Amino acid sequence: VTAGEAAPLDPVRWRDGALRLIDQRRLPGELAYLECRTVDAVAEAIRNLAVRGAPAIGVAAAYGVLLGAETAARAGKDPMPAAREAARVLAATRPTAVNLFAGLARMEAALDAGSARGLLDHLRREADRLLEEDLLTGRRIAEHGLGVLPAGEPLRVLTHCNAGGLATGGWGTALAPLYAAHRSGRRLEVFANETRPLWQGARLTAWELSRAGIPVTVLVDGAASLLLARGRVDVVIVGADRVARNGDTANKIGTLGVALAARHAGVPFYVAAPLSTFDPRAPDGASIPIEERAEAEVLGSQAPPGVRAWNPAFDVTPAGLIRGWITEVGVLRPPFPLPGTGTTPAPDPVD
Amino acid sequence: VTAGEAAPLDPVRWRDGALRLIDQRRLPGELAYLECRTVDAVAEAIRNLAVRGAPAIGVAAAYGVLLGAETAARAGKDPMPAAREAARVLAATRPTAVNLFAGLARMEAALDAGSARGLLDHLRREADRLLEEDLLTGRRIAEHGLGVLPAGEPLRVLTHCNAGGLATGGWGTALAPLYAAHRSGRRLEVFANETRPLWQGARLTAWELSRAGIPVTVLVDGAASLLLARGRVDVVIVGADRVARNGDTANKIGTLGVALAARHAGVPFYVAAPLSTFDPRAPDGASIPIEERAEAEVLGSQAPPGVRAWNPAFDVTPAGLIRGWITEVGVLRPPFPLPGTGTTPAPDPVD
Predict the structure, then answer these.
(1) Is A256's CB within 8 Å of B225's CB?
(2) Which of A140, B74, B232, B334 falls 20 to 30 Å from B250 in CA-CA distance?
(3) Is the pLDDT of residue B2 over 80?
(4) Which residues in A lie closer than 8 A to residue B191 (C-beta atoms)?
(5) Residue B295: exposed, middle, or buried by beta-carbon count in 10 A (0-12, 13-18, 19+)?
(6) Which residues lie across from A189 on neighbouring strands?
(7) What gap in Å lies between CA A233 and CA A235, rounded to an integer?
(8) Considering chain A, what is the average pLDDT of its residues?
(9) Residue A116: CB atoms within 10 Å
(10) Which helix (H) or strand (E) holds A146?
């Protein structure tokens, strides 16, 4: 994995004065790009899940602020208040996506530091930097992840949901080490849980891996325990929505069950996530709020009318079930090198 | 639960000279009955899943043999060979359903013992007896199950797939104790895993419980671990497809994950099944074959073309994760009182 190596995917890019997104709603049916030329178009793409995955949303929002400033400048208006208004609009799209606020905070800091003169170039550079940092983080996660993949061919990996290139600037988190291993010529077999209720595994993980030429097999979430118990998995890697200080990890609903089954089968279970996913304010999993989503996502057309559903969007896997956290600074164990935890990130030996 | 008490459902009944089935394919949309007046109609209903659930299939097949004999007699033909031919046709419908063969074996024994004279009455009595035995077994499972339900109201129960009235003559296995508890006035809250890939929980368990007035909440299979970990379940009860001599239990795919999560959460996990589900020839779970079904059931319209799926129909839960086996002769632990295992069923104190 070298610094100049192209990412497997380009879900969020600046092209010809517009933000170009892979429209994830149309996957796996077709690979279609959505061109956003206004703040409202970006906000709508985030809201309607054309772009999803916390890191991808953060980068998209940053370019949205740039679009707000550019639109104002073209109309002969002051780009500074327009950029601030864009940040306000974009912040209201997905209230729980941490990387969204991080991306907007970076752009607002750039606004504070800049002047009207040269503002557009300044904002463009900051948004580009956010994307480049995300791609660098993905490459580093790939590199560190390679170090913990078990020996043997084909390497049989189980994952849950989509923590792939689509969810980020292009490398992904859980899937980044798999792309790197595949490019180095190693034979892989990836098992993707379909990930009810929104099918991110069956739709997105299956699509992006098979597109890269990596063999992928989809299974219902309930079949993961048997797959593990039958000795058909060498390692489990998943992404994360939030990691508490003690290592308890919130991720897509169903992850806890996979971790329990991996422990039962004696298979190592890793979480791959950038340090921005680690929350120094959350001491443990009990302090991570569980978002509950609409019942209709579960009930669909299957259940009889009048029946209720319980639809938590993610669960919390206790730190004790996790072998290691694959980050851009190495494979960590608690205590993590985070601001306010008395430790600082070690210099990164990769790249 | 008294001997004369009506079962919650009537999925398989003999009415006006025909076999009347609840058409489970049309649930939960509507409660429609299918009238089978020929062997071929019964065979087709079993094949196309209009009737499903091993005990229900066994009873349906028995009446199918009766229909074969009656059709021949009405046409002035010998009913004896027609009944034997019916048994042959019905045996080919679902090759792995154990109760199908048990039901047909009972009818063939009745043929062997009978004569052409009075044959139709003889067959009718044997099929009725099979249904009555199934209903009695369900009532006894209900009674024994009541004895192990934890105290407290509402009693919060988690189940997987459909081991309800629909899958049997009318009482069910895992759901039988819940019907009995509800009728005795106890408040219940049942959580039903949706049960991918065929949605038996969301479609059938949700339907039959809500019809009986028992509050039911559907969740994706991947959410069961979180539900248990958050202390929201008092007891787990599931059915079984086959129980080995050491107690290892095959049941619908996803059951193993529920059992592991129940252990993690310290929640008791019970299997409810008639003794006919216990296989004295299977020493342990490793000797139970795992049926793998069509990939299309998993891939549906979600996954991209060319992607493979792994679709095991059931998994095996190790005996060590199971608190007890609720049967018609009591709540058992291995060694079970089975033919060929050196023990015999104890006299039943219930009814």
Answers:
(1) yes
(2) B232
(3) no
(4) 310
(5) middle
(6) A156
(7) 6
(8) 92
(9) 11
(10) helix A119-146
What sign for the dihedral angle of Cα B230, B235, B240, B245? Answer: positive
Considering CB atoms only, which of A196, A260, A307 is closest to B260?
A260
pLDDT > 70: what percent of chain B? 95
Rounded to 5 degrees, what angle do the CA atoms A224, A229, A230 make? Answer: 100
Tokens of A31: 């690979």
Q: Cα–Cα distance between B166 and B56 in angstroms, integer? A: 7
CA B185/CA B181 separation, integer angstroms: 7
Q: How confident is the model at residue A340 (pLDDT cuts 50, 70, 90)?
A: low
SS (H, E, C) A158-206: EECCCCCHHHCCCCCCCCHHHHHHHHCCCCEEEEEECCCCCCHHHHHHH
Task: Write out pLDDT tens, residues A266-309.
Answer: 999 999 999 888 888 899 999 988 888 899 999 998 999 989 99
Q: Looking at beta carbons, which residues of chain A come within 8 Å of B315?
A: 222-223, 225-226, 229
Here the tokens at position A303 are 């259940």
DSSP state of A313: S
| pTM confidence score | 0.91
| Interface ipTM | 0.91
Q: How far apart are CA B150 and CA A167, in angstroms?
A: 44
Flag if A210 and B254 touch (Cβ within 8 Å). Answer: no
Interface contact flag, B302 A217, Cβ < 8 Å: no
Given an 8 Å threshold on Cβ–Cβ distance, is B298 in contact with A218? yes
What average pLDDT score do residues B92-97 get?
74
pLDDT at B235 over 90: yes
**What pLDDT band is residue A5 in, cutting at 50, 70 and 90?**
confident
Q: Do B308 and A216 touch (CB under 8 A)?
A: yes
Chain B hits for A264, CB-CB cut-off 8 Å, are: 260
Active site residues of A: 241
Closest CA to A242 of A54, A52, A49, A50: A54
Whole-angstrom Cα distance, residue B248 to residue A289? Answer: 37
Average pLDDT for residues A125-139, to the nearest whole number? 96
The string of pLDDT tens digits covering residues B316-325 is: 999 999 999 9
Residues contacting residue B146 through CB under 8 Å, at least 6 positions apart: B1, B177, B180, B181, B184
Q: What is d(CA A202, CA A220) in angstroms, rounded to the nearest whole number?
A: 9
Least CB–CB distance from B260: residue in A191, A261, A315: A261
The secondary element (H helix, E strand) that includes residue A255 is: helix A255-265
- 10 Å Cβ neighbour count for B129? 13
Could you read off the pLDDT of A178-232 as tens digits, one per residue?
999 999 999 999 999 999 999 999 999 999 999 999 999 999 999 999 999 999 9
With DSSP H G I counted as helix, E B as strand and the rest as coil, what are the percentages for chain B, rounded to 5? 40, 15, 40
